[in-house]
Amino acid sequence: MASKKKSVLFICLGNICRSPIAEAVFRHQVKEAGLEDKWYIDSAAIGTWHVGGRADSRAIKCLKTKGIETDHIVRQITKEDYTKFDIIFGMDDENIGDLKEMAPKNSTAQLKLLGEYDPEHIRIIEDPYYPGNYEDFVTVLEQCIRCCKAFLNSEL
Ligand SMILES: *[C@@H]1O[C@H](CO)[C@@H](O)[C@H](O)[C@H]1NC(C)=O
């Protein structure tokens, strides 16, 4: 019997920019570390705006520059996620506030800011959707690479 997988859910407002980038980056790092069978990884939205759609084309484009792909389909967080996942990462304080508000009574997941793991101590991963400069997506990607790496190392 395989031991229980660790599980992590990345959250942002719409699940088309920050959280699918974080999910794809972490999945890639876990794969490179040969730990695919040890982790269950997903991402989801606070809101319903983009449910059923794909990540923002700018997110897909910047991931590609690192050789990372995503085929994530946008979904909204569910009550079950709060017991299914060990850790739920938000990207900013607003996400954490929303996550707390939406949490069911039986929630067991730890709610954390992904930026808490940033070795460069940038706590907040800002939403790059507006004004939507490609550079902002690159910044998000770099934050996610740093934070996910540090998180993975902390779990080894
Ligand atoms: C926790 O509560 C929610 C409803 O608030 C329910 O949908 C879910 O199945 C419960 N999970 C467990 C593991 O009991």
TrEMBL record:
Protein localization: Cytoplasm
GO cellular component, one term: cytoplasm
Predominant subcellular localization, coarse grouping: cytoplasm
SUPFAM superfamilies the record matches: Phosphotyrosine protein phosphatases I
Entries under InterPro entries matching the protein: LMW_PTPase (IPR050438), Ptyr_pPase (IPR023485), Ptyr_pPase_sf (IPR036196), Tyr_Pase_low_mol_wt_mml (IPR002115), Tyr_phospatase_low_mol_wt (IPR017867)
Function statement: Acts on tyrosine phosphorylated proteins, low-MW aryl phosphates and natural and synthetic acyl phosphates.
Assigned protein family: Belongs to the low molecular weight phosphotyrosine protein phosphatase family.
PANTHER family listed in its UniProt record: LOW MOLECULAR WEIGHT PHOSPHOTYROSINE PROTEIN PHOSPHATASE, LOW MOLECULAR WEIGHT PROTEIN TYROSINE PHOSPHATASE
Protein's recorded name: Low molecular weight phosphotyrosine protein phosphatase
Catalytic activity entry: O-phospho-L-tyrosyl-[protein] + H2O = L-tyrosyl-[protein] + phosphate; a phosphate monoester + H2O = an alcohol + phosphate
Keywords assigned: Cytoplasm, Hydrolase, Protein phosphatase
Domain Phosphotyrosine protein phosphatase I intervals: 6-154
Gene Ontology molecular function: any one: acid phosphatase activity
Active site: C12 (nucleophile), R18, D127 (proton donor)
EC number(s) recorded for this UniProt protein: 3.1.3.2, 3.1.3.48
Top EC class for this record: hydrolase
